[in-house]
Specification:
alpha/beta, Rossmann fold, five-stranded parallel beta sheet, 7 helices, 5 strands, globular
């Protein structure tokens, strides 16, 4: 990440985006970062840059090996985010790690991007499903979503709907408002992981 906002235009604080696969974290995060004039970091892209395609990491190391690598990369990025305003998009399973949840709890803003299961499944199937090792069966996909929703709820400071009923620019605008002044309404049921 490269430090200060362009032209000193923003005093935004860091925002991490969490949510299930196909929630739109990367697309929304890029737009929000551009508007805030801060760096955007996609932790999945960073993992792939360091270790190769995620599907190949899963094949070679298994999910446990991938999760260990993911934990290390995400925690490293979140530590930097404490010092440097940025928008960080986390992989859907990053919140499985207690270390990641602990790092997220230190950030002022964690937005949970949400959409109904059928929307997430349709997006996943439409966008190169072979790149998503855990998206081959719809029932397993829905169970995984149900299992993770509680973790997303526990780590987030705000819940943001991205179900396709609003433009990406509108959704990104909510993230910008959150980073700029915390004006976004809090999520329902902040969990025990948030301070």
């Amino acid at each position: 990440m490269s430090g200060a906002p362009v032209d000193g235009a923003s005093r935004a604080s860091a925002v991490a985006l969490v949510g299930f696969m196909a929630a739109g974290k990367s697309a929304v995060g890029r737009l929000a970062a551009k508007r805030l004039k801060v760096p955007f970091v996609d932790t999945d892209a960073l993992i792939e840059k360091r270790a190769g395609p995620i599907s190949e990491i899963f094949a070679a190391r298994g999910e446990q090996g991938f999760r260990a690598l993911e934990r290390d990369v995400v925690v490293e990025v979140l530590v930097v985010a404490l010092r440097e305003p940025c928008v960080v998009a986390l992989g859907g399973g990053a919140v499985l790690s207690g270390d990641v949840r602990e790092a997220l709890a230190r950030l002022p803003h964690v937005a949970w991007l949400t959409a109904p299961a059928e929307v997430l499944w349709a997006r996943t199937r439409a966008a190169a499903p072979s790149r998503r090792p855990l998206a081959h069966d719809e029932q397993a996909f829905r169970r995984l979503l149900d299992d993770r929703n509680d973790l997303y709820r526990r780590v987030c400071s705000a819940k943001v709907l991205n179900d396709g009923s609003r433009t990406l620019a509108t959704v990104a605008g909510e993230i910008v408002a959150l980073a700029a002044d915390g004006a976004l309404a809090p999520a329902h049921g902040h969990g025990e992981d948030r301070p």
